[in-house]
Every structure is written in C-alpha cells, then in structure tokens.
Design a protein that fits this description.
Length: about 375
C-alpha cells in the first residue's frame, strides 16, 4: 500500500510541475489584458500600435510552436521546457521595461515575442511530456490537467492584476502599475524553472535516442518494476511502428478526413472572438459596457471564474457525453452568446448596458470553455 501511494505522489508531482507550463501559457496570455489598459495610455499609443503590441506574442507563439518539435527531438522535452521557462522569465522582466532599459515600444514588442516563443514551446512539449511519462490508465486525465492549468493561469493573473491595480491610483497604474503586472509573472516562471530540475527526462525520448536502460530506470522509479517492463516494451513497439507507418496512416482514406476536420475545428476556434475578450476585456468593459476604471479589472476575475467552472464541467462530462455532443452544445452556445452580446451592445441604454453586458459575455465565455 505504501509503495503505491509513493508512486501516485511521484507521478502527480511530475504532472503538477509540467502543467506549470500551461499555467504560464494562461498567465502570459492574460497579463496583457490589464497591462495594455495602462501602458497604452503611458505611451499614448494609437489603436493600431496597441493591437500590434498585444498580438506580437501570438507571432512569437507561432514561431515557438513551429520550432518546438525540432528542438524537442534534438535535446529532449525537459530541456525544451527549461528553455521555455527561461524565456518566460526574460519576457516578464523585459516587458516591464526596467529603468536600465530604454522606454521603447520596440523593446516591449521584442520581449512579448520572447514570451510568445515560450508559449509555443511549452504548449507543444508539456502535454507531450505528460503523455510520455504517465501510466496508460491515467494518461487521459493527466494530460487534461494541462488545459485546466491554462485556465487557472488566466484566473490567477486576473486576480493578481486586479490587486495590483486596486491598490494604486489611476496615475500610478499608468506610470508603473502595468510594469508590476508584467513582473509578477517572474514568480511562477521562476518556480517552473527551478522545479523542472526535479523531474526526470522523458522515457520515450530517451528510448528514441537509444538510451533504453536509463529510460527503464526512470519508469521503474515512477511505476514500479512490473509496469516499467511492460511500458518499455510498449514504447519500443510503438517507436518501430510509428517510424514505418505514420505517414501512411495520416494520409489514408480513413484518417485524412478526421485530420482535416480536427484541424478546421482548431482553426475556427481562434475565430470565435474569445481572444478579443481575453486581450481587450478591460477596454470592452470600460468603453463598450460603461464600467468605471475601478471595476474593469474586477470584472475579469468573474470571467475567469466562469471559464474555470465550465472547464471543470467539460473535464468531468466529456467521458459521459462524448466530445462531439460537447462541440455541438458549445457551437450553439457561442451562437447564442454572440447574438446576446450584439443585442446588448446595439439596443441597450448606455446607463443600463453594464448590467446586461456582463452576463452575456460570461455566458459566451463559459459555453466556449466546453
């Protein structure tokens, strides 16, 4: 009994450490919401320049995701995540433009690009690492912890930016509050970097590199000798199988339509409008919904809470309902959410719009989380 308990703690400890990469994904993406609300006033940015600075992290994420596979194959999942953690740290520090650096929007873009590269690398390597080290019976639920960590990252950063902003005046937030919001990311990034040195290398990557004995020793420490021997055989067989049949299976008549549909769904998800709420929520609540500046950051916490709750609902209902029904429910829900938001913004009286707008946006974001 004691041996089993030790194994459980070990694998869950590893999973928690790796999912910090997901938390940083959400944190780095969400921190721009509160910071752009103030640094845009500090630098007196045009709408176009503010939009470019906000979206620059996405360009970095594209580059990071594109090169993540190559880097991971060469140096391993663990070292790739260490690089991502370092980039998160550098991005958080530099985006606050400390006094030793010139106050330049160009530098801000560069550091946001670095954060985006970290997001791309973490989002590719963290779920893959968990899948490769988790036992087969727990693999599905452990991998979903990564997505949950992303949502928790949004929740945490909206809490942090609210408490930073609420304890400063508007002029102080414009002068330096947004810097503190960026720098707050250094705490989880530093924790992620340190904790990565306490997790093992991916057994699968080690076996791909011909280090089967080291891989088996790691699996024994995590799963025990009996399961480790079975895992080694399964990994060995899958590596041989994938190296010979992966191209044929992906482009087969059976798999190709599934791959295309899955890709289209992933692309369409980016056009739902959720990123506008996540990146410009503070502006939406102030300029479109009529909330005062003291309240705009507080409303982000409510949205993050809705997102978190519905993510939990999706996690614990997906096995019962299936993924397809949840996608259909989510699709209809987003349609209703868009109609409600459009109706609220177009027809409501400005003095009453904030009371109607908040529930509609919450409904939209919650259903999207499914």
């Amino acid at each position: 009994m004691g041996k089993t308990s030790t194994k459980r703690i070990n694998i869950y400890f590893i999973t928690i450490v790796i999912t910090l990469g997901g938390l940083l994904f959400g944190y780095d993406t969400g921190v721009i919401n509160g910071t752009q609300f103030y640094f845009s006033k500090y630098f007196e940015l045009t709408g176009a320049l503010k939009g470019f600075i906000v979206s620059s992290a996405l360009l970095g994420a594209l580059a990071g995701a594109a090169c993540a596979g190559i880097i991971s194959k060469a140096i391993g999942r663990k070292k790739s995540l260490i690089i991502a953690a370092i980039l998160f740290m550098i991005s958080a520090w530099g985006s606050g433009l400390p006094s030793m650096l010139p106050e330049s929007t160009t530098l801000l873009v560069i550091f946001r690009l670095l954060g985006g590269i970290a997001i791309g690398m973490a989002s590719m390597n963290a779920p893959m690492y968990i899948a490769e080290i988790a036992p087969a019976k727990n693999r599905g639920i452990l991998v979903t912890f990564y997505q949950l960590a992303v949502v928790i990252g949004f929740f945490v950063v909206f809490l942090v930016t609210y408490f930073i902003g609420a304890n400063l005046s508007e002029s102080e937030n414009i002068a330096f509050g947004w810097r503190n919001m960026f720098w707050s990311e250094m705490i989880p990034a530093g924790l992620f970097l340190v904790m990565l040195f306490f997790v093992p290398k991916s057994p699968r990557w080690l076996m791909i590199k011909g280090k089967e004995e080291e891989a088996e020793n790691i699996l024994k420490r995590i799963h025990g000798e009996d399961i480790a021997s079975k895992e080694v055989k399964e990994i060995r067989d899958s590596i041989v199988k994938e190296s010979t049949k992966v191209k044929a299976s992906i482009f087969s008549k059976t798999m190709l339509p599934i791959v295309i549909i899955g890709t289209i769904l992933s692309v369409l998800q980016q056009f739902t409008g959720i990123n506008a709420v996540l990146y410009y929520g503070a502006d939406i609540f102030e300029q479109a919904l009529g909330f005062g500046q003291d309240d705009v950051l507080l409303q982000q916490i409510l949205l993050a809470t809705v997102n978190l709750v519905f993510t939990f609902i999706a996690m614990f209902t997906v096995d019962k309902l299936g993924r397809k029904p949840l996608l259909i429910i989510g699709g209809f829900g987003m349609l209703i959410g868009f109609l409600l938001m459009g109706f609220t913004l177009y027809f409501s009286d400005y003095s009453q719009i904030n009371s109607a707008g908040l529930p509609t946006i919450s409904t939209f974001e919650g259903i999207l989380s499914l």
